[in-house]
């Protein structure tokens, strides 16, 4: 039985760093990804180095909770969305009462087109941001929903990459061996500092250092770009 959906206590390291010193408090949603809620994971070849097993995600208890939420979304979608909106409105009120603005990252490790499920007009004064591997989503912008495209060098994924490069959307790239100064003809910024900065890094590469245990560090997935002597190879 799923009792709650949102993480509102800032236990996610990146979210804690992103909201620190800002006017925002960030609520996040962590599901357990599969092909239905992360449709491009096969063509992007990012399933192996996925952050689903990073940090607290390596704990069986956390993985089970995330899986139960995914099952709830897929099998009882109407009830899921009703509970999610209820929690979001409650978080919004709590933020306002404490002098902050509410922000939401609903795709912590999934890739769901949330505007299809949630009426964003209910949250006009809130901020939304997500990473996505679906380039078409970049062309359907909402005033308060910011998207960062997620790169992979996988051959079957290159049509998505080409489409993303035709927009000004920030493009996140996972690097191993440090961050290069440029990639794909764009300036690289340190994307590990703040997602609130990343989401407005238009026409730039959001550089993310490869995270995870030994198996992830050794991955040969094209989702990860190697850097040697400051140059992407």
Question: Which keywords apply here?
Answer:
globular, 233 residues, single chain, ten-stranded mixed β-sheet
Please provide a brief summary of the model:
The protein has helices at residues 13-19, 60-75, 77-97, 158-165, 195-198, 214-217; strands spanning 24-28, 101-105, 127-132, 145-150, 171-176, 182-183, 186-190, 205-209, 224-228, 231-232. The chain has 233 residues and is α/β, with parallel strands linked by helices. Strands 1, 2, 3, 4, 5, 6, 7, 8, 9 and 10 form a 10-stranded mixed sheet that branches.
Description:
It is a single chain. With 233 residues, the chain is an alpha/beta fold. It has one domain (13-232). Helix content is 26%, strand content 20%. It has 6 helices and 10 strands, in the order αβααβββαβββαβαββ. It has helices at 13-19, 60-75, 77-97, 158-165, 195-198, 214-217, and strands at residues 24-28, 101-105, 127-132, 145-150, 171-176, 182-183, 186-190, 205-209, 224-228, 231-232. Strands 1, 2, 3, 4, 5, 6, 7, 8, 9 and 10 form a 10-stranded mixed β-sheet that branches. A hairpin with a 2-residue loop joins strand 6 (182-183) and strand 7. Helix 2 crosses helix 3 (77-97). The longest helix has 21 residues, at 77-97. The radius of gyration is 17 Å and the shape is globular. 36% of the residues are buried.
